[in-house]
């Protein structure tokens, strides 16, 4: 028996319908589209008309009407997946001997800078270490978020590049000579040193996860173009 396959035009029409109904992220649409197309093709093989198979395919998957709630739930699921990868990567960096060696050497170099350089040099270096990844992460995040064909995975993987800065920065605002938790200037500088070290680990993990996600999605796009 010959397998019935939907045409590219039919698949594109289904994807357009999903997008119009509220699935704004292409990787979410592709995930659902894969299940939907398989179900429709199976129904066609069983003798249903295309219109009937299309409607009956949408119904059991609850893909009728406004799909914004589904879009949000899928985004939450993506965030959970990316967050798990993010913290797992941090754990790997702290347990892998070669990664740990690089981290220790980097922190030792930064400690020497903290201990023996001028205040201006230390502050400037610290600001660069903190702000460069933050700016890169923000640019990648908004670049992806504002695209018409955006990816939920890329939005969240770029977010985790600067996630740790957002969390740790609030602590920096509290612990300062004139802050909620008053400390001396010397203590404040040491806290900056510690926070920068911790932030660097998490930021680098976020960058690695983002690069891995970009690579994975490029493979998916390449496969879609070949189909």
List keywords for this structure.
227 residues; mainly alpha; 8 helices
Overall description:
With 227 residues, the chain is mainly α. It is built from eight helices and no strands. The two termini are 22 Å apart. The radius of gyration is 24 Å and the shape is elongated. The protein folds into two domains: 8-58, no CATH class; 75-226, no CATH class. It has helices spanning 8-20, 26-45, 50-58, 68-95, 97-116, 119-145, 152-174, 185-226. 80% of the residues lie in helices and 0% in strands. α5 packs antiparallel against α8 (185-226).
Number of domain modules = 2
Going by helix content, strand content and strand pairing, the class is mainly alpha
Query: How do the helices and strands follow one another from N- to C-terminus?
Result: HHHHHHHH
Which parts are unreliable, with pLDDT below 50 for 5 consecutive residues or more?
none
Percent in strands:
under 5%
Shape: elongated
Write the SSE topology.
Elements: H1 8-20, H2 26-45, H3 50-58, H4 68-95, H5 97-116, H6 119-145, H7 152-174, H8 185-226
Quick overview:
The protein contains eight helices and no strands.
């Amino acid at each position: 028996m010959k397998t019935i396959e939907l045409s590219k035009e039919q698949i594109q029409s289904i994807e357009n319908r999903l997008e119009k109904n509220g699935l704004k992220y292409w990787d979410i649409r592709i995930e659902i589209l894969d299940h939907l197309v398989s179900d429709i093709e199976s129904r066609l093989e069983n003798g249903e008309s295309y219109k009937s198979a299309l409607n009956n395919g949408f119904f059991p998957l609850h893909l009728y009407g406004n799909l914004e709630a589904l879009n949000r739930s899928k985004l939450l699921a993506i965030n959970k997946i990316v967050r798990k990868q993010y913290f797992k990567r941090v754990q790997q960096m702290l347990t892998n001997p070669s990664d740990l060696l690089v981290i220790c050497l980097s922190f030792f170099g930064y400690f020497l800078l903290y201990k023996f350089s001028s205040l201006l040099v230390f502050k400037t270096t610290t600001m660069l270490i903190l702000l460069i990844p933050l700016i890169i992460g923000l640019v990648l995040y908004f670049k992806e978020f504002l695209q018409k064909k955006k990816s939920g995975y890329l939005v969240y993987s770029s977010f985790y590049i600067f996630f740790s800065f957002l969390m740790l920065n609030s602590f920096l605002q509290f612990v300062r000579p004139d802050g909620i938790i008053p400390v001396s200037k010397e203590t404040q500088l040491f806290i900056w040193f510690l926070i920068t070290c911790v932030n660097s680990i998490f930021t680098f993990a976020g960058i690695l996860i983002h690069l891995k996600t970009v690579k994975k999605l490029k493979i998916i796009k390449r496969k879609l173009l070949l189909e």
